[in-house]
Every structure is written in C-alpha cells, then in structure tokens.
Amino acid sequence: MFNSGKPKRLKVQFLARKADIIEALGQGNTRMEIWEVLKHQGSFTGNYSSFCFYVSTQINNQSPKVKKPKPMSTPTKAEEPAKQKNRFNWTPNYDPKKLTG
C-alpha cells in the first residue's frame, strides 16, 4: 500500500488504520503484535518506536517522553523534617589501658 517511511507519511499510515488498531488493542493484542501484522501487510512502514509514539499520542492522548515538572515549593518550618539525633557519639579522647585490658 504505502512504501515511504517518512515521518509525515507514517502519521497518515497510522491514522488510516487507527480504528483497526484500537479494536486490536481492545481485544488484548500487544503493540508489538499489532505492529508486526501492519508491517507484514505493508500498512505501516515505520519502526516499532514510531508505532508506539503514534499509539501514545493518537489513541492514548498522552504525549510520550514529556514530563511536566512538579512545581518546587520552599518547605515551611512545619514541613521541615525533624533532625535525627546522632546515635553514635565519638570522642577522640580514649584510654589505651581500657582498650588493651
């Protein structure tokens, strides 16, 4: 059907089979299985990564690899964790007689 793997052409190829892809995903098929069938039929000439990109953006309505940063807030005094007391008390002064017996 299509023989061009150019990015613009890949989106068109994907959208042409979008309904079939949604149906196959609903039946429990994996993305890999669907991509292999489409690749074998010549319906989608892109690689698996491109296929997953289009599934994520066109079907799942989520943008892949784009994470929104969480807003940073300065901790208030109530939010600051309590400082733990050091359980180990080391003193540089020692008695050698106590160590050797």
Summed up, what is this model?
This protein is mainly α and 101 residues long. Helices cover 47% and strands 0% of the residues. The protein has five helices and no strands.
Notable characteristics:
single chain, 101 residues, mainly alpha, 5 helices, DUF5338, TraK
If you had to describe this structure to a student in words, what would you say it looks like?
This protein is mainly alpha-helical and 101 residues long. It has a domain of 53 residues. The termini are far apart. The mean pLDDT is 78. This is TraK. It comes from Shewanella sairae.
SSE layout and pairing:
Layout (H helix, E strand, L loop, with lengths): L6 H10 L1 H9 L4 H11 L6 H12 L36 H5 L1
Helix pairs in contact: 1-4, 3-4
Strand tally: 0
**Counting H and I runs of at least 4 residues, what is the number of helices?**
5
The rounded Rg comes to 30 Å
Helix content: 40-55%
The whole-number mean of residue pLDDT values reads: 78
